[in-house]
Amino acid sequence: MTNRRTFLKAAAAAAALGFAERAEAAGLTLGPPRPFSFDLLKEKAREMAKEPYVGPMRPAPELIAKIDYEAWGKIKFDVDQALFAQGAGRFPVSFFHLGKFFPKAVEMNVVAAGQAREIIYDPSYFEMPADSPARQLPKGAGFAGLRVQEARDAALDWHHNDWVAFLGADYFRAIGELHQYGLSCRAIALDVAVAGKAEEFPDFTKFYVDESGPKDGLTLYALLEGPSIVGACRYAMTRGKGVVMDVEQMFCLRRDIARFGIAPLTSMYWFSETIKPTAVDWRPEVHDSDGLVMWTGDSERLWRPLNNPPRIMASTFRDHNPRGFGLMQRDRNFDHYLDGVFYDRRPSLWVEPKGDWGNGSVQLIEIPTDDEIHDNIVAMWVADSPVVAGMELNSAYRLYWLADQPLPSELARVVATRLGNGGQPGQPRPKGVRKFMVEFFGGPLVGLPYGVKPEPVLWASRGSFSYIYTEAVPDDVPGHWRAQFDLTVTGAEPVEMRLFLRSGGKILSETWMYQYHPWSQCEPSCYPNPGT
Question: Fewest 10 Å CB contacts: which of 181, 256, 377, 440?
Answer without folding.
Answer: 256
